[in-house]
Amino acid sequence: MRGGGGDIGDVQVVRDLVRRSVADFGRLTIAIANAGLSLWDDFFDFEPEDFYRILAVNLGGSFFLAQAAARQMRRQGTGGRLLFMSSVAGNQAIATSSVYAMTKKGLEMLARSLVSEVSSHGITVNVIAPGATVTPRTVTEVPDYESIWSQVTPTGRPAYPGDIANAALFFLSAQAAHITGQTLIIDGGWSATSPEPKSQFVDKTK
Question: Could you give the domains of the chain?
Fold first, then answer.
């Protein structure tokens, strides 16, 4: 797709992304709401402007991207796939994550709610909830990120981008045509046991 980005918390920016996609490719069959903000702070100190900013991006951006994409898919009459990116933080309490976590859990409920509205148009809507994932950002912020999370993840390692991508490809494929309204947690079993990393590090990446 040609052209740059923008503030995903701005509804017009989101609608323009869909419009430009259709202009470039002629149709729209998948939409992944992957943009998000992670600002972790103590509940007692959280500022209103930060609160509403996270809601605008994490919930508003995802909602209106899904709306614009689903409208286009409905016009095309050929169905499509919607995919939201939640987080393990939306399923397991982590200190200082209250605002971020509630937006991520909200995406999971949004997917379930949309089932009754988009299924008749051949559109599925699902959610991926990654756990600790090794990315350039995580290892830049925490050089021993991988070793820290390897010690507390039952499978012996954190996720890599390919783990998340493979799940996304499945949800977007024809093989997942009868799966909708579901959330898949990809965390190597961490949320099943939930051990705390042996450091002061809090994962601020999801």
Answer: 29-54+77-188 (3.40.50.720)
Q: What is the pLDDT of residues 57-102, one digit of tens each?
A: 999 999 999 999 999 999 999 999 999 999 999 999 888 889 999 9
Cβ distance 63 to 12 under 8 Å?
A: no
**Starting at the edge strand that comes first in sequence, how are the strands of the sheet with 80-85 ordered?**
30-33, 80-85, 123-130, 183-186
- Tell me the pTM: 0.90
Asked whether the beta carbons of 87 and 101 are under 8 A apart, the reply is: yes
CA separation for the pair 139, 127 (Å, rounded): 25
| CA–CA distances in Å: residue 57 to residues 35, 61, 144, 162, 199 | 7, 5, 29, 25, 30
CA 149 – CA 130 distance, rounded (Å): 13
- Which residues form the catalytic set? 100
| Helix 98-118 vs helix 62-76: crossing angle, to nearest 10 | 20
